[in-house]
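Handout, section B. The chain below has 121 residues.
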Amino acid sequence: MQNGEIYYIDFKGNMGSEINKIHLGIIFTIPKIKNMVFCIPLTIPKPKHFKDMDSFNNRNHNNLKYQNLIYIDETDSIALLDQMRTISTLRLKNSYNVVINSNNINLIITKVSKYIFNILH
């Protein structure tokens, strides 16, 4: 298990508008905690994620509609920052055998930091 690795994650047991069922997710290990990971769920790109249909069709990552979304080209997925959370490793089903490249990991870290900062301030 390594930072930026993609796993199938079982999100069953949700409440309200939390993500549900099995989805891909990007995982990050938590130092000194072996049975928990930080994850960012992924979903299939939809027109509602982009500012216009041309951006959707071309997967223009610079034209996403909301700041809480990141386009992940390795999986043709949208990372849902508003659904990120800490989960038990028991929720991890199988590795997708993809690790996010370092440029996307740095983008994710930057966007997560900004997203949390905006929530807390």
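Note. Residues 102-120 form the longest helix (19 residues). Compare this with the example in section A.
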